[in-house]
Amino acid sequence: MTRNEPGPEAVPGPGSGDRPQGAGRLLAGAVRHTGGRLSLLVALMVLRISAALALPALLAAAVNAVLHGRSGVGPALAWGAVTTAGAVGDTLMAPLGVSCAAYGTRWLQLRTVGHLLGLGGRSPVPAGEAVTQVTQAAQQAGALPVAVAEWGVTVTGSAAALVALWWLDWRCGLAFLVVVPLTVLITRRFVSRVTRVQSGYLAAQSRIAVRLLAALSGARTIRASGTLDREVTRVLAPLREVSAAGYRMWRLQKGTVWQFGLLLSLTEALVLAVAGLGVADGRLSPGELVAVAGYLQLAFPAVQQVDVFFTLAQARAAAGRLAGTFAHPGVRYGTGAPGPGAGAVSFRGVTVLAAAAEGAQRPTGDSAAERPTGAPVLDRIDLDIPAGACVALVGRTASGKSVLAGLPGRLADPDEGEVLLDGRPVRELAEDPLRAAVTYAFERPALLGGTVRETIGYGRPGLSRDTVLEAARAAAADGFVRRLPDGYDTPMERVPLSGGERQRLGLARTLARSARVYVLDDATSGLDTVTESEVSAAVTGALAGRTRIVVAHRVATAARCDQVVWLDGGRVRARGTHAELWRDPAYRAVFAADGAEHGTPGPEDAVHHGTGEEKGGERYAGHRGI
């Protein structure tokens, strides 16, 4: 079982540690972060709708003036000026609306990414779902403030048009009101149904993304097994649900459009008939009939905007999915700094349970094995690691090694108990001091940064070139880096790396940090025996006097440490030097069982097998550190 790096080191991200947020609070935040553009957009919308409301009255005045033999130039000029103002407003609204949606989407995406990273190693959100939320749900939810503003201004304008219609002739207003209850009912049903369908659509998209990411991570196994066609079918199986949701949304739109079209056409015919009778009876002038027709068209948009209703429904569904992610609280950091000391780590009654959420990411590789929900990964661990000591964590797969190693830096938090750094609970520490005090190197590090030098100095802006070179030399990475086209300034996308070279760069990044505690989670497993020995010797010199917690799968790695903590079933089974524990056949069997996953022991390891057990233990007793 391999241990992947759970995420970038020391990336707080916006939203880390925040309280859970509902859809309403998220959308309110998106509105605030449009930078005032939404207010300007609303002002332009009001200008446009005001101009539109003035046009029927001006047109009616011009018609009546002509019919009564007066000059219609004044009303005509006013009509032209108002039309021009409305056109200018329309021209400015389009790019401003796009800008508002873009700013709102950007804020939601940053917030979502930050919160996802802030959830820590045991995130309950699968990677595929996270990708879907950032790329699709945030974009759809970001469009909601603009859609709501447009709908709100339109409804206000339609209400004003209805008032004008009622003022011209209350009978015309009453005829129009006949349509309102039916349109409200149709709109509510449409929005409710589209929201449900859109939620299903996003869920199906997420399932495709989850399956695709899993397939990509196992691409070599799929090719070697000749199961490409089967995997393609499995990954795209939810596509039927996506297609079905698309058809349902199309049918909902189609059904709503014809219902609105029929209803509004009948309403228009009824209102104009009432107005025509009013002209015949002398209640209305011909100009007022023109005004009735104009205000009737302005009263319709509030119930005629199927596209806006569709956007509202999509955005509601997307915001609901985002709110589901924010319902999981992120890591809450304290405000303190570590106490005086050199990196003593203590575990007091520490218990970690298997992730309760189905499909949740585990803290690290050890706990990724199948466990019943709520079963203990670590069970009431009491352990003290003295400052400056080098301690190996040894155990079979799923014994809890990597989970335990992740606790001092809060890559995960215990469900019970406390972890202390130099006598102070790590929960009480602020994030930056904690990241400065505890640093990690992983078996499969995520190499982030534009160039090799930036990758080694990742998380420490302004790191000197000499420090980068010193760390690279200690990790035995300087040689292959200098052979690159531009050396340390080579862009990472142009750097082909083997597994061992990736590990050495990740280890160099860790060594470039001056920390109290260094956690090496099988960080040299990809190196051959000779290189590992060279790297271990260099690391021993570079980290002399620093606390080191080493997740060990190789015999040689465990033997180089001052102490070994043997974990079994989430409990500490024994503690001592490697030579002392090696006398126990069950301890030796741990490495034999792990050999199938972590490679067979090299020549240096072989002295521990057969009859040379104690001699091997003595040999390594004088070669401490890693």
Give me some keywords for this one.
single chain, 10 strands, 25 helices, 59% helix, four-stranded antiparallel beta sheet, disordered N terminus, six-stranded mixed beta sheet, alpha/beta, 626 residues, elongated, disordered C terminus
Mean pLDDT: 75
> How does the major sheet shape up?
6 strands, mixed
Figure out the total of helices.
25
Beta-strand proportion: 5-15%
Unreliable parts: 1-20, 356-372, 596-625
Assign the structural class, choosing from mainly alpha, mainly beta, alpha/beta, alpha+beta, or little secondary structure: alpha/beta
Distance, first to last CA: 22 Å
Structural shape: elongated
Helix content: 55-70%
Give a written overview of the molecule:
By secondary structure, the chain is of the alpha/beta class. Helix content is 59%, strand content 10%. The chain has 25 helices and ten strands. It has helices at residues 23-32, 37-67, 73-118, 127-142, 144-168, 170-177, 180-217, 219-225, 228-235, 239-281, 286-299, 301-304, 306-326, 401-406, 431-437, 452-456, 465-474, 478-482, 499-511, 529-542, 555-559, 578-581, 585-598, 603-606, 613-621, and strands spanning 345-353, 376-385, 390-395, 416-421, 424-425, 438-442, 517-521, 547-551, 563-568, 571-576. It has a six-stranded mixed beta sheet. Helix 4 (127-142) crosses helix 13. It is elongated, with a radius of gyration of 34 Å. 41% of the residues are buried. Residues 1-20, 356-372 and 596-625 have low confidence and may be disordered.
